[in-house]
Amino acid sequence: MKIFIMGPEGSGKTVLLAMLSRFVATERKDLVLAPRNFHDSQYVVAALAALERGDWPPSTRQGALAVLHWRFGKQGKSLHDIELVDSAGQDMRKILLEDKAKNLPPLPPALKTIRQDMDAANILVYLLDLGGFLDTRDLERVNENAWLFKTFLTRPEWCSKPRMVVLSKADRFCNMLAARGNQGDDETMIRELLKSHLPRNYTMDHLVDAQKSVRYFAVASVWTTRSIADNGVPFPIPARPLRSSGLDYLVTAIESRMAVNTSRGVATIVTAREKCGGDPSGTIGNVKSSGNSYAGIGGIIGFVAVTFIAVMFNAFAPGIPGVVLLILGGLIGYGIGGAIGLSIKGRSGTRKS
After folding, report:
1. What are all long-range contacts of 95-101, with beta carbons under 8 Å and residues at least 24 apart?
2. CB neighbours (10 Å) of residue 82?
3. So what's the pLDDT on residue 78?
4. Which helix (H) or strand (E) covers residue 126, if one does?
5. What is the band of 260 on the pLDDT scale with cuts at 50, 70, 90?
6. Which candidate, 212, 97, 209, places its Cα nearest to that of 144?
7. How many Cβ atoms are within 10 Å of 279's Cβ, its own excluded?
8. Closest Cα to residue 114, out of 86, 138, 139?
9. What are the sequence ranges of the domains in the chain?
10. H-helix or E-strand spanning residue 59
11. What is the pLDDT of residue 351?
């Protein structure tokens, strides 16, 4: 199984993975989050070192591309792939958008491979920095972020996948979230916050509401910060000791989307075949159809049993009233039909896919 983490530059992907590895190592020792090679390990070690010094890891320049491969799962169980692409926003836009546009050159092979990996992933996680929508001094960036997020919500290849939106740098927007504290659970507050601040000309408010299968989380990968002056403007930087907020909920949500068949060691996804904006569970119809099938089989068997038992009782005990025969036959037939129906259901549930 593969989990793919994406987002524009500056959304906090590298910081999230670095602090996530730290969180798992210290707080969730029942889990494993480990790099697959030395390069990926060094990438995150360097990010953690920068955070400990009070610096943010440098933003990725255009054309630079880092694809990190990690493994995640329960201790002693099958591990699953996590792939994180650290690229500039322009490159991310090419990966997500420009294959749909005309009169543009084809994607470079490296970017094309990344998009194929995204389409093949089982769980998609999108990091959204709300600050990228609030800075009206850079309308090009606002437009780019809006299109990227809209593509994440509506790309047809992803509508059947479990998707999660992480409101990164949530510590900077905690007052805005708190102002919506009377609107229900945390996900509802996040949805309302996004609807209030995302560009309306992209029908974002409608998309946030329509995509009921998308989960929303507020995460502050580095909650402990202090402010310095950057050209007269306060700018937060990491402060020791490094602490996070919201990572436990995100990890639990990813865990809930994974079901490991320990007998075969095969990872499957606990999800459904929902459509964009459709039923997020996708289980209601399946449960009904399965129940009807087993009930139908049991009913047919029960009818045959009722008829046979009634005939046998009438042959050996002709004095028994017909109503009594019908009741006795129905009870016995119901028991036989139900037992056979459950047996069929049990065998179908263990069938290999």
Report:
1. 96/148, 96/151, 96/152, 96/155, 97/147, 97/148, 97/151
2. 26
3. 83
4. strand 123-128
5. very low
6. 97
7. 14
8. 86
9. 2-269, 285-349
10. none
11. 37
